[in-house]
Write a structure and sequence with these properties.
17% strand; single chain; globular; 9 strands; KR_dom; alpha/beta; two-stranded antiparallel ribbon; Rossmann fold; 42% helix; quinone binding
């Protein structure tokens, strides 16, 4: 049995400090809420030292407090992933605190929906910047700490979407960006594989977050001084109809939770996925098969 497999068999547990990622360091962007928060808590529960990043410093610090209160290790590094100085800022903070990097989870993002024929350039450009350029720049900044010859468990996990695989009405920008993420990940896989770095994409289907909630709920994000509403128009009404009539096109007949989405990320980061690289894991409840 290899050392890595031996480590896996001895560390499948839910106790802080004794899990599948014990002693490893993980950067998770967009970790102040939703899927990112669930991932940060879960990675910490499995023994990782987590760098919680979010544009909202208060939310990032709240997640760090949750982790520490449960006995885990974490620091908060707030910032806009699209900012030019962000990659160096978070990599330097991580290495200064923990001495290295094992995992990067590029989770930060949002939607800015418009029909193709009415979509302005800025709505297209900002989605490409946050979902493609930002992950590329963060991974590149971490290169000196990942492209090293070692037996350490190292991975890159980039978040895509079934929209990037199949397209979606009103999301030409998001579809293009999430499709590009797949190509970026496969390239990292091929270039960094010789250094033991695994690179995988997780493509989420319908997961209950603020991006899939009813637009009427009022969730929004400020982009260049403009408020952009998040969510799906009429989602609550449609979801109720699906529940009552079991008319959903999801075989499991429900949307996924943030915790379930985070579990897919954990699997890809863990030694359980030690021979999986360049893969796109669809987390959809069976939708789209």
């Amino acid at each position: 049995m290899s050392n890595r497999l031996a480590q896996v068999s001895g560390h499948i547990t839910n106790v802080y400090g004794r899990g599948m990622l014990v002693g490893e360091v993980a950067i998770i962007t967009g970790a102040g809420q939703g899927i990112g928060r669930s991932a940060a808590l879960l990675f910490a529960k499995e023994g990782a030292k987590v760098v919680v990043s979010d544009i909202d410093q208060t939310k990032a610090e709240a997640v760090v407090a949750e982790i520490k209160n449960a006995g885990g290790e974490a620091i908060a590094v707030a910032g806009d992933v699209g900012a030019d100085d962000f990659p160096k800022k978070i990599v330097d903070a991580t290495v200064s605190q923990y001495g290295g990097i094992n995992h990067i989870v590029n989770n930060a993002g949002f939607t800015y929906d418009k029909m193709l024929h009415t979509m302005p350039d800025d709505a297209y450009d900002i989605i490409m910047k946050i979902h493609v350029r930002a992950p590329f720049r963060l991974v590149r900044a971490a290169a000196p700490h990942l492209r090293t010859k070692s037996d350490a468990n190292k991975s890159i996990i980039n978040v895509s979407s079934t929209t990037g695989l199949h397209g979606n009405v009103g999301q030409a920008n998001y579809a293009a960006a999430k499709a590009a993420v797949v190509g970026l990940t496969k390239t990292i896989c091929k270039e960094w594989g010789p250094y033991g770095v695994r690179a995988n994409t997780v493509a989420f289907g319908f997961i209950h977050t603020r991006l899939t909630a009813d637009k009427a709920d009022g969730a929004e994000i400020v982009i260049d001084g403009k408020k952009v509403a998040l969510g799906i128009p009429g989602a609550n009404k449609n979801r109720s109809a699906e529940t009552v009539n079991a008319a959903s096109d999801i075989p499991l007949r429900r949307g996924g939770t943030a915790d379930e989405a985070a579990s897919a990320m954990l699997f890809l980061a863990s030694p359980l996925a030690s021979y999986i690289s360049g893969h796109t894991l669809e987390v959809t409840g069976g939708r789209g098969i």
